[in-house]
Amino acid sequence: MSKIYDVCILGAGPAGLTAALYCARASLKTVVIEKLAPGGQMATTASIENYPGFAQGIGGVDLALSMLDQAQRFGAEVIYDEIHRLELVGPVKLLEGHGGTYQAKCVIVATGASPRELGVPGELRFRGTGVSYCATCDGALYRDKRVVVVGGSDSAVEEAVFLTRFAKEVILVHRRDSFRATPILTKRAMRNPQITVKFDTIVEAIYGDTKVTSLTLANVKSGEIETIPVDGIFIYIGLQPNTEFLRTIIELDHSGYVVADQHLSTSVEGVLVAGDVRQKVLRQVATAVGDGALVASIVEKYLSGVTGHDQ
Ligand code: NAP
Questions:
Q1: Residue-level pLDDT, tens digit, the chain, 311 residues
Q2: How far apart are CA 63 and CA 60, in angstroms?
Q3: Is the CB of 50 inside a 6 Å radius of any atom of ligand 1?
Q4: Quick check: CB of 239 below 6 Å from ligand 1?
């Protein structure tokens, strides 16, 4: 535990890996701690079409591994561990993981966000046996099957289209009468003959034996209830910030996102934030990468004694 890093970055998604690249390239002793696998949500996306520089789109895993490689090439250390206790007050921060304890002068929280659960009967029981939150990971299991996608924003609409590569029928279920998704994605889904859209509809329960076999839908306007046979359900109803472990330590907003000023500094000195976990208006790979670059430059100045007011 004697090693004191200049900066410890929590999370190896696009924000964390960009921050790592910039910090390491600026010769800061940099460690990234990731609890699962590099890439975060980016790695659960089949093709990213709106990240500049990849005219034909790029696979999320490919982009994640390339970002990881680039950060490591400049000297960033990557450790797979989960932090469960933090002492953030004072000039040296202490982070306790299951695999060890880490010390750093600065911490960048880049833990991203995870899929929100629907909270209906059967969801937990059939998780992994018909209930999924990742079409890229599980879509191929539904070749020639019938699946439901729940949600009305970019993720739901985009992944419904993606699933038509495998499933013979995709039923897109949204609780309101119009999508929130960007028009280009909405148009693609509406024009796809394999996709049926059910507006004003919610999922009431998921049924099955060893795996999902059917689910009950309710029309919120007419009150009509129907039970339809399905092989799987993909839930895309938004995100939940990964901040549970920070709840009493730094300021979060009412939805659990980390509150920061324009210098990406949190309520605790020496603790900064980047990416989807931050309270912000747009959550994309491009904005996460932007946060990563900015937060690294702020950390560099902070460590050389330049205060927020001077920047
Ligand atoms: P989101 O934008 O937060 O939308 C969540 C969707 O789920 C909304 O349509 C919402 O309905 C619905 N919903 C929420 N709670 C629900 C519940 N309990 N039951 C049923 N439906 C519920 O989430 P997201 O699609 O995961 O996107 C997250 C962020 O990533 C967004 O900023 C999005 O733009 C971005 N993203 C971008 C792209 C892209 O640019 N290609 C792709 C994926 C994601 P209402 O509409 O009624 O509120």
A1: 569 999 999 999 999 999 999 999 999 999 999 999 999 999 988 888 899 999 999 999 999 999 999 999 999 999 999 999 999 999 999 999 999 999 999 999 999 999 999 999 999 999 989 999 999 889 999 999 999 999 999 999 999 999 999 999 999 999 999 999 999 999 999 999 999 999 999 999 999 999 999 999 999 999 999 999 999 999 999 999 999 999 999 999 999 999 999 999 999 999 999 999 999 999 999 999 999 999 999 999 999 986 554 55
A2: 5
A3: yes
A4: yes
Mutation to probe ligand 1, out of 42, 45, 58, 155 (largest number of atoms < 8 A from CB): 155
Q: Ligand 1 centre and the CA of 252: distance in Å?
A: 21
Phi, psi at residue 306, to the nearest 5°? -85, 125
Q: How far is the CA of 172 from the centre of ligand 1 (A)?
A: 13
Task: Give exposure, 139-149, as e/b (b: 16+ Cβ within 10 Å).
Answer: beebeebbbbb
Q: State whether the beta carbon of 255 lies less than 6 angstroms from ligand 1.
A: no
pTM for the model: 0.85
Q: For residue 152, what is the enclosing H or E element?
A: none
Residues in the chain: 311
Place of tokens 């390239």: 25
